[in-house]
Description:
Distance between the termini: 29 Å
Radius of gyration: 14 Å
Number of strands: 2
Helix content: 40-55%
Number of helices: 5
Strand order of the largest sheet: 1-2
Strand content: 5-15%
Amino acid sequence: MLWVDITDRDAGLEQLGIGPQKALTELHLTTADGQVLSELDAYIVLMARAPWLKPLARLLRWPEIRPLLSC
């Protein structure tokens, strides 16, 4: 996992389809295959990598749960 400081990276963010305001207010990550995920999808990927949060990541993937979190 690599943390990237978004300071002065507007052009690179725009290439990924991430506007400056969204970059400041939402979590984004790029997967190994180049897919850009944001918000809940990004958090689920990160939680799945932490052994103690993996069960929560599985729960958040359930189609019945996701709509409750998008309010």
